[in-house]
Amino acid sequence: MSSIKKDLAKNTIWNSVERFSNMGIQLLCTFILARYLTPSDYGIIGMLAVFNAVANSFIDSGFGLSLIREKMVSREDYSTILYFNVVLSMVFYIALYLCSGLIADFYNQPILVDLSKVVFLMLPFQAVGLVQNTILQKELKFKKLCIISISSSIISAIVAIIFAYIYENVWALAIQMVLSQFLRSLFLWISTDFVPILKFSKVSFAKYFAFSKDILISGLIGNIIGNIQSILIGKYYSASDLGFYSQADRIKTIASTSTTGVIQNVTYPTLAKVYNDGGDLKGAYKKVIMITILFVGSVMSLLMGISSDLFGILMGSQWREAGVYFLLLGISGLLFPLHSVNLNILLVKGESKKILYLEISRRCIMLIIVFITIHFNVYLFAAGLSIYSFLLLFLNLSVCGKPIGYGIWSQLRDVSPTLLKQIFVTLLCLVVSNFMEDINIYFRVVVTLLLGCSLLLLLFVRDPYFKMGIKLLPIKRK
Fold this sequence. Notes:
Blueprint (H helix, E strand, L loop, with lengths): L1 H32 L5 H8 L2 H12 L2 H7 L5 H24 L1 H8 L4 H8 L2 H17 L3 H26 L3 H21 L10 H25 L1 H9 L2 H38 L4 H25 L1 H9 L4 H30 L2 H22 L4 H24 L6 H28 L5 H20 L3 H8 L7
């Protein structure tokens, strides 16, 4: 068990460095690009998100998780999955290339005809590197993944900023997306020793597809319905509205989803080891979810408290409205760790069928909320995601926690005090910021952040999970 703990700490550090470095690069690039581009530019590129997401669900098809879960994987297995990914990605690229005119007509944006043909190049570029990425994850080589990810992000960001400075149009965003994926796959091939053999094994494909097929359907449903808000905002509201929404959602994703992903990426293979070795899965899982909720939720609560001012400072005054969207989406960000880490239990247990049924059920809930809120203004429509996330708690926690005896009421009892404290900090920051609305924006943000950080530290400094989280940080101790 001691070696497992060391693996967890080391890999958490490297995975954290990768995610947080990428977050920093993406944020810095976004803040710079926003000075040269308009909310409408970001809205136009956001209209293509659902097509990439759906295609990616088919291309990966859950094979990455299936390969990680398998103890022994042959070169024939890896080669089979690689060929499947690449061929399928080319089929999707050609299909979307031919449909580019229909996509442009649907949104009434002629520029999407040419823009989509370039942006969708991400699909084959990503498919080429999926197996190599899985190999490095399976071997727990998060240091290599960190270097690869940061390098590709930096290079693509620099190129995009230069292009935006010269031309000031949406093509800067397209170039950044495609170049980043191309470089990542190129570096993955350079960094692994895997060389595919010229063989496609139907037996290997059938073996991994048996586990991954439910993950495929689950991911497909999730990506279609998960992006339906962007589709409808782009269709029934303006490109600027979608730009505000997409950037608010992106920052929320970086602060909540990506941060949670650091822990989830590391804990899935680590919890799988605990499960295979007959360890205390419930105890390990409880620690993971409590630490994640505490730190991710605290970051979200601070950002929600200064959202409009933050967007105004970092992206320009024309982006302040995005802060309203961020506040509306914030509840889903606070609750995301609960949903995400819970799914790891079903993955570790190999209960992919339950993941599929759960995905279908919760997406039905989302569809109901979406088609109710679409009849109101865009703000209530955006808030629907947080309403959905709150309602989903009762379904998600009861299903996912049951296999390890950690049900919904036990989880809610554990996490509720932490969440209530974080919501209180958000409300206090909003009140303080509102009282100082006539004061200089920079001074207002600094004062509000200092107050929020001080209160969070006071509330959690004696929390045992806060202390556990601090011990995971790469700090030298005497």
